Predict the structure.
Amino acid sequence: MKSSHILFLLVSTLICSTALAEERVIPEFDRYDAEDIMDVCAGCHGEYGQGTPDGEYPRLAGQDPVYLARQIEAFKSRKRINIPMIPYANDRELPPEDVRTITAYLASINLPRHLKPLKPGEKFDAFERLEESKRVLNIPHYPGDPKKGERFYHRECASCHGEKGEGNWKKHAPMLTGQHPKYLLRQIDKIRKGERFHDSVDDAELFREYSDRQIADMLAWLSRQDD
Ligand code: HEC
Ligand code: HEC
């Protein structure tokens, strides 16, 4: 390869990675205020916003802050019904400045996919290891055919939710990889029933055309993207 080509490659890689970094700008927030608000959310969504594997409570950590804020607004206006959050989703409990703080804080939480192996010679500290392990989130493999799921996902969903389901902070399409599959399944069910808004008003009908098998295969593929 000519050196000019290598330079071109280097420059374009740099531009691409900066573009991703620019896309994922987390607004500044007051950590003290954020942790105070988080005390309330942690009761259901977990100390690190990791959600629960049974899909009852979604993961919030690492999600696009604009997307999160839009959901809270939708809960407040009851455009999206979320009964457990009714006592919190109102302007008295969660005024706009608190929404800005907590959504920026949640977006900034990085959950490792694996427990880091001990470096050679590193001392084993049981307490530290336990604390670290609480932050690890790796979605267990969902039953289905991931090969078929990949084709379906790339045809129908990747243009907005990203090549690997990582989400798109420009389009404010949430990450699906790393989210609990049972939670996603419940949302898809709500979209089909017209109980939850998706990207366009016609999506309820579109989602009803997808078979349960196609959805399960897609979840099987998504659940393998954070291995
Ligand atoms: C009493 C339990 C409970 C508490 C406390 C709670 N939530 Fe939730 N939250 C839920 C449930 C349940 C859902 C999922 C609702 C559904 O299935 O549509 C949810 C969903 C959400 C979502 C939507 C996530 C997505 O992927 O669309 C956001 C954002 C959210 N909560 C933010 C918060 C914040 C911020 C707090 C703290 C101020 C909080 N929640 C406190 C129960 C709770
Ligand atoms: C044209 C863009 C677009 C396409 C294509 C698309 N989505 Fe979405 N999706 C969105 C947007 C935007 C949202 C956020 C909607 C909101 O604000 O409530 C969303 C939200 C979701 C949610 C809710 C996630 C959560 O955390 O609560 C699920 C589940 C979902 N999409 C699944 C899918 C699946 C499955 C496909 C493919 C069959 C798909 N989407 C295709 C744009 C898209």
About this structure: Residues 3-23 form the longest helix (21 residues). Residues 37, 40-41, 43-45, 57-58, 60, 68, 71-72, 82, 84-85, 88, 94, 102, 174, 186 surround heme C (ligand 1) (CB under 6 Å). The radius of gyration is 19 Å.
